[in-house]
Amino acid sequence: MPSVAVESLGTATLVRPTGRLDTMSTVELRSRLGKVIAEQPAGIAVDLAWLTVEGDVPLTLFLALARAAAEPAGCPMVLCAPSARLRTALHRLRIGRVCRCARACGRR
To answer: What global pTM score does this model have?
Structure first.
């Protein structure tokens, strides 16, 4: 189950999930990110650098969350994926149609 660090960056929020993400652990991550979305920050960056993803199915979580963030207050979500393998999977699932996918969040 991934652990999640949340950091406020002024009006935006940086979320850093760490650990393994599979179909079973998406529930916990969805809950934690749902709380961040409920706070309605100006933007959300999700740093995927320390997350190990087991297959494509768990990545669909980010598609649903990006849509949820955009609906109430137009909060943009950026997925930061330094791994070429992960960026390829995000592209294959067309998650970039709903949120921006970047190589890095710019702050470590």
So the answer is: 0.89
